[in-house]
Specification:
Length: 366
């Protein structure tokens, strides 16, 4: 194990160790989150040590919490007591064995199994003049000193806690299937024959940064002229919290000056490349969750088993092909698009920036 992520509490009595901060969701199961807490019993004063893993939806900056309102809602949370130990000596994972060598005899292992219906780490991009943390879904591992795991009457001071943010991520599944296809026939007033539009994608899954090939076939049987073709890639962000709302944003728009005369046919392939760099000032664009100043990209398509009760943020994409017809009117067809990152060949943890690795006040990379 080349890296260990460590965060020490302000009082120095507990330290949280993780071997990685990216955990892969394989749709039907999620990698186990396992780590170690180093405990100095001399500073506990009769208190216990707990660890929780929380998935939360953040919809406002913590700086705005001035009247006791919470701008964070826990979607899922699980707590475990690590000291004094409860139960027998559970078998440690290879990751925990490595971390125990760093923590020494005072190390206490813990693990969490996330359910597969939790959303992935995603943030909604703030506007150019917005300040504070972005809204979105994040995951936090937190160790703390307390008399009880979760008591409304107990105030836990910040110096008695240490936390590390982690990510739940998905990678594109192996897929060489052909892409989706859709077609429509539209008849206009004062014409007895239609415009037939067919569109298809070259493949089912595209990677971030790759050009998306859209095949377009047109059979214009009318006396009208198709003046131009517009193709959009739209990001659909479904925010499922207290209610379910979907926000649609165009992340790539291309206009092609192709003219299809009356009673003629047309066939051509077009390419689009949706990139975050072309949308970095658009408020509300969903991006993949990141740690500190690490680079990111447009949010990946959310893969699921069709769980209707999934809360948080669910991402999908579609390609729209729009024909602008003379005399007013248009013809539009839509295609679903899966946009994701490829599974890396090596370890799943992506490299964090140096600023993230060397945190202030008790955080360090060993």
């Amino acid at each position: 194990m080349s890296k260990v992520f460590k965060k020490t509490s302000g009082n120095g009595h507990i330290a949280l160790y993780l071997g990685k901060r990216d955990f892969v969701d394989n749709v039907d199961s999620v990698e186990i989150v396992d780590g170690v807490v180093k405990v100095d019993p001399s500073g506990l004063n009769g208190r216990k040590v707990f660890v929780y893993l929380a998935c939360a939806f953040r919809y406002g900056s913590e700086d705005l919490d001035v009247i006791g309102l919470s701008f964070r809602r826990d979607i899922w949370i699980q707590r475990v007591q690590v000291y004094p130990p409860t139960g027998g000596n559970a078998t440690k994972s290879p990751m925990q064995e490595s971390l125990m060598k760093k923590a020494g005899e005072q190390g206490c292992a813990f693990s969490f199994q996330m359910p597969p219906n939790l959303p992935c780490s995603v943030a909604l991009q703030p506007g150019p003049n917005d300040s504070g943390k972005a809204c979105g879904v994040d995951f936090e591992v937190k160790a703390y000193l307390a008399n009880a795991a979760d008591s409304a009457d107990e105030v836990i001071e910040k110096k008695d806690t240490c936390r590390l943010m982690i990510r739940k991520i998905q990678f594109a599944p192996p897929n060489d299937k052909p892409g989706p296809k859709a077609e429509i026939c539209k008849q206009f007033m004062m014409t007895d024959k239609p415009v037939h539009l067919e569109a298809s994608l070259q493949k089912e899954v595209y990677y971030h940064g790759d050009p998306i090939t859209v095949n377009v076939k047109i059979n214009n049987e009318t006396a009208k002229v198709v003046k131009k073709i517009k193709i959009f890639v739209e990001q659909l962000t479904n925010v499922a919290l207290y209610s379910s709302d979907t926000y649609t944003k165009a992340v790539c728009t291309e206009e092609f000056g192709e003219t299809i005369d009356a009673n003629s046919t047309f066939e051509k392939s077009f390419q689009l490349k949706p990139l975050l760099s072309n949308n970095n000032e658009k408020r509300g664009i969903a991006v993949d969750g990141r740690l500190k100043d690490e680079d990111t990209h447009l949010a990946s398509t959310t893969l699921s088993q069709g769980d209707k009760d999934m809360q948080g943020i669910v991402i999908s994409y579609k390609v729209k092909v729009n024909l602008i017809v003379s005399g007013g009117g248009d013809v539009t067809v839509e295609l679903p698009l899966t946009l994701m990152s490829p599974k890396p060949a090596g370890p799943t943890s992506r490299r964090s920036s140096r600023r993230d690795e060397m945190t202030s006040k008790g955080g360090s990379l060993i």
